[in-house]
């Protein structure tokens, strides 16, 4: 599970946070990394806390977000692969991204037509 500063920043947007689970119920594990506290709830959802909780979606949760567009798993994987190859040809640094970062970028492009510019999501 990616809990890097980049993934936290990428996840901290209204489009994603509006889809997070409603309650922080049954937080069971605590992790500390510098000034941040991380908690994992009983459902396996990962949260980052500084001033407020930020939900860090897992890959399966990101994939669920686009299931309505790609109802068949093989279609989803095919389109994800096509998206990755197209963007990797423009920016080979994508090969350094975590799988969570890649799936989040795919979700944001497919659902909201936004791309990550290194700092924020912009219309693209």
Please give a structural write-up.
The chain has 124 residues and is an alpha+beta fold. The chain has one domain. It contains five helices and six strands; from the N terminus they run ααββββαααββ. It has helices spanning 5-11, 14-17, 59-65, 73-90, 99-112, and strands at residues 27-33, 36-41, 46-49, 53-56, 114-116, 121-123. It has a four-stranded antiparallel β-sheet, covered by helices on one side. A two-stranded antiparallel ribbon has the order 5-6. A hairpin with a 2-residue loop joins strand 1 and strand 2 (36-41). Helix 1 runs parallel beside helix 5 and helix 3 runs parallel beside helix 5. The radius of gyration is 15 Å and the shape is globular. The model has no long low-confidence stretch (mean pLDDT 81).
Binned strand content: 15-25%
The percent range for helix content is: 40-55%
Largest sheet: 4 strands, antiparallel
Rg, alpha carbons: 15 Å
Average pLDDT taken over every residue: 81
Q: Got a strand count?
A: 6
- Kindly, what is the distance between the CA atoms of the first and last residues, rounded to a whole number of angstroms? 27 Å
Decide which structural class fits the backbone. alpha+beta
**Alpha plus pi helix count:** 5
Indicate the low-confidence ranges by residue numbers. none
Secondary-structure element order, N to C: HHEEEEHHHEE
**Count of distinct structural domains:** 1
Strand order of the largest sheet: 1-2-3-4
Anisotropy-based shape: globular
